[in-house]
């Protein structure tokens, strides 16, 4: 990775957001303009998703993107003529937020996303989908050629925009997306607390809790050991703390790599700020913007969009504001960019099937409470102190708390539309942490006001240490834990539209190597076991070539023959029949053994 390219991309994205926000909210304070500009950046990525239903591949054309992006900003500047001077900035909160964002992002700068053990396989899929878009795909599909899209892809469109418009490639773009998400949750939480009546101290505390807050299990853990991936893992001795994937609190999810579900959580406070302000001011345009923001969050992570919809409905009912329907309509219109093609796919391929290969793991209630850390007692205290003066605080906490309670009551094993992800209450806990952060900030603000200055400073320092220790220890573990590499090649001259096969035993090793090849190239695999190919559409594997036909082709390659009409790239152990049946194109390492890359001509 190139650090200068990462720095240039981060500066470029934030500068573009600043210009866009200044054009949208010309007379407003600096942070509000930045918040509006961040939503605009996500909105542009959402518009790029229209290339799916329109069957174009705009994001595949580097120079077109590099012309359109600055031209659009220049046109907005010429039309609106805003002042770009940052009015109303406060140096101390700005510096503190910048330092915290930088510290949280350090692991992303030090190693490519593909080397992180956390969310390793998830990120391989996301990398492959981004490279498919860059290679000319209208929508990201799957590891099999022609597989229809079944995963929301605003995250991937955003990364593709950045990779095309700014210096660097996919690795640098993913670091930029990571930093963009951190800035989004920091700005959104600060603005939300101020909108709900909190002062600077309350906004600062809530922002720290949302951005980098963690649990208190580290007190008896006594080491930076962490559960890197929870799938079928035993939380046991970790007491619900130091879990990086799936993250129990936003702070753990904010540590790199930032996956789409974490980016959806990052968007939530900014959308809530937009909605709360528009609802209070009776602004129809603001309500439409908030609804569009919720739709964008849905396109990134459906669960985030669902929570924002329920929060918005509850706040609207509380204020008896039927005008909030404008937000609902805007949200549905934006979400339809992906939902409408998904519905067509659902009908065409006979629905979806559950592709969860391992039983999901949820924490116990006690583990979740420990993972929430000081946010839980502080948040409950803030509710007691401030809920009568502002009942909106109750809504912020009650919605995710009720969802968690319902999830606990339902237990394990449920699926919805072929996926268990929407019914895992573990994924609801980060939204509860967001809701608790606001009253927690208010509670601390009142407590500091009641203390003498030296005592307040000491209490604030102790509280900060307690809040940040868990994420700091997790970052240490993240920095020293790297995923082993199954496939290593001097070069992989593949791309979207190419077909490859990894021919090795056991098949599990071949599947892992295939996923690595997909992540680096966006090319399609000739054969994988269905459990790891993650084919969600019910009827897709039964259409030619069927899974049985794919397996027979794999068996033919093992003996040095190919019946694949368009030809295929093959990675195989050096000296094996598969390695001698084609034209050698390069050297590789497969599971630590010498291997070769060969090209089989069309059958």
What Rg, in angstroms, do the CA atoms define?
24 Å
> Percent of residues in beta strands?
5-15%
Placed side by side, the strands forming the largest sheet appear as 1-5-6-4-2-3
Low-pLDDT segments: none
Through-space gap between termini: 39 Å
Q: Into which percent range does the helicity of residues fall?
A: 55-70%
Would you count the extended β strands for me? 6
Q: Calculate the mean pLDDT score and round it.
A: 89
Structure description:
The chain is mainly alpha-helical and about 600 residues long. It has helices at about 5-25, 30-50, 50-55, 60-80, 90-110, 120-135, 155-165, 170-195, 200-210, 220, 250-255, 260-280, 285-300, 300-320, 325-350, 365-370, 375-385, 390-410, 430-450, 455-480, 505-520, 530-535, 545-560, 575-580, and strands at about 485-490, 500-505, 525, 570-575, 585-590, 595-600. A hairpin with a 2-residue loop joins strand 5 and strand 6 (about 595-600). Helix 2 (about 30-50) crosses helix 13 (about 285-300), helix 5 runs antiparallel to helix 8 and helix 12 packs parallel to helix 14 (about 300-320). The model has no long low-confidence stretch (mean pLDDT about 90).
């Amino acid at each position: 990775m190139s650090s200068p390219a990462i720095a240039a991309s981060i500066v470029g994205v934030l500068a573009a957001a600043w210009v866009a926000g200044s054009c949208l909210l010309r007379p407003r304070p600096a942070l509000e303009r930045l918040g509006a500009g961040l939503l605009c950046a996500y909105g542009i990525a959402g518009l790029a998703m229209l290339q799916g239903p329109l069957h174009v591949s705009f994001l595949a054309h580097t120079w077109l993107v590099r012309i359109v992006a600055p031209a659009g900003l220049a046109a907005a500047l010429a039309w609106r003529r805003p002042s770009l001077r940052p009015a109303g900035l406060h140096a101390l909160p700005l510096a503190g937020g910048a330092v915290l964002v930088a510290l949280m992002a350090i692991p992303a700068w030090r190693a490519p996303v593909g080397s992180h053990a956390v969310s390793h396989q998830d990120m391989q899929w996301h990398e492959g989908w981004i490279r498919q878009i860059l290679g000319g795909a209208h929508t990201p599909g799957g590891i099999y050629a022609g597989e229809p899209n079944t995963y929301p892809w605003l995250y991937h469109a955003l990364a593709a925009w950045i990779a095309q418009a700014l210096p660097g490639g996919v690795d640098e773009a993913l670091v930029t997306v990571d930093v963009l998400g951190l800035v989004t949750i920091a700005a959104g939480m600060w603005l939300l607390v101020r909108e709900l009546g909190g002062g600077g101290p309350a906004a600062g505390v809530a922002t720290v809790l949302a951005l980098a807050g963690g649990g208190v299990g580290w007190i008896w853990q006594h080491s930076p050991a962490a559960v890197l991936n929870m799938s079928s893992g035993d939380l046991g001795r970790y007491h619900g703390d130091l879990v990086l994937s799936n993250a129990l609190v936003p702070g753990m999810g904010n540590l790199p790599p930032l996956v789409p579900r974490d980016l959806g959580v990052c968007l939530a406070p900014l959308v809530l700020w937009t909605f709360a302000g528009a609802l209070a001011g009776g602004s129809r345009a603001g309500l439409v913007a908030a609804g569009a923001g919720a739709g964008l969050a849905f396109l990134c992570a459906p669960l985030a969009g669902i929570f924002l919809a329920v929060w918005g409905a509850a706040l609207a009912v509380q204020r008896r504001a039927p005008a909030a329907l404008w937000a609902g309509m805007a949200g549905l219109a934006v979400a339809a960019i992906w939902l409408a093609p998904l519905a067509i796919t659902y009908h065409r391929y006979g629905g979806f099937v559950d592709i969860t290969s391992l039983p999901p793991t949820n924490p116990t209630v006690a583990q979740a409470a420990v993972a929430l850390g000081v946010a839980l007692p502080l948040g409950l205290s803030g509710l007691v102190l401030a809920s009568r003066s502002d009942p909106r605080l109750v809504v912020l906490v009650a919605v995710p708390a009720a969802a968690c309670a319902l999830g606990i009551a339902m237990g394990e094993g449920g699926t919805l539309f072929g996926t268990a992800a929407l019914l895992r209450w573990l994924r609801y806990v980060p939204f509860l942490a967001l809701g608790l952060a606001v009253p927690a900030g208010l509670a601390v603000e009142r407590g500091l006001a009641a203390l003498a200055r030296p005592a307040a400073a000491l209490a604030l320092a102790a509280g900060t240490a307690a809040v940040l220790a868990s994420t700091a220890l997790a970052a240490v573990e993240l920095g020293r834990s790297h995923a082993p590499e199954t496939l290593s090649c001097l070069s992989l001259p593949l791309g979207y539209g190419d077909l490859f096969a990894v021919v090795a035993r056991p098949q599990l090793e071949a599947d892992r190597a295939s996923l690595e090849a997909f992540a680096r190239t966006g090319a399609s695999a000739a054969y994988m076991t269905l459990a790891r190919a993650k084919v969600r559409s019910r009827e897709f594997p039964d259409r030619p070539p069927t899974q049985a036909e794919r397996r027979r082709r794999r068996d033919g390659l093992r003996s040095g023959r190919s019946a694949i009409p368009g030809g295929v790239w093959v990675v195989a152990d050096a000296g094996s029949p598969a390695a001698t049946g084609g034209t050698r194109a390069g050297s590789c390492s497969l599971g630590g053994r010498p291997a070769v890359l060969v090209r089989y001509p069309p059958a």
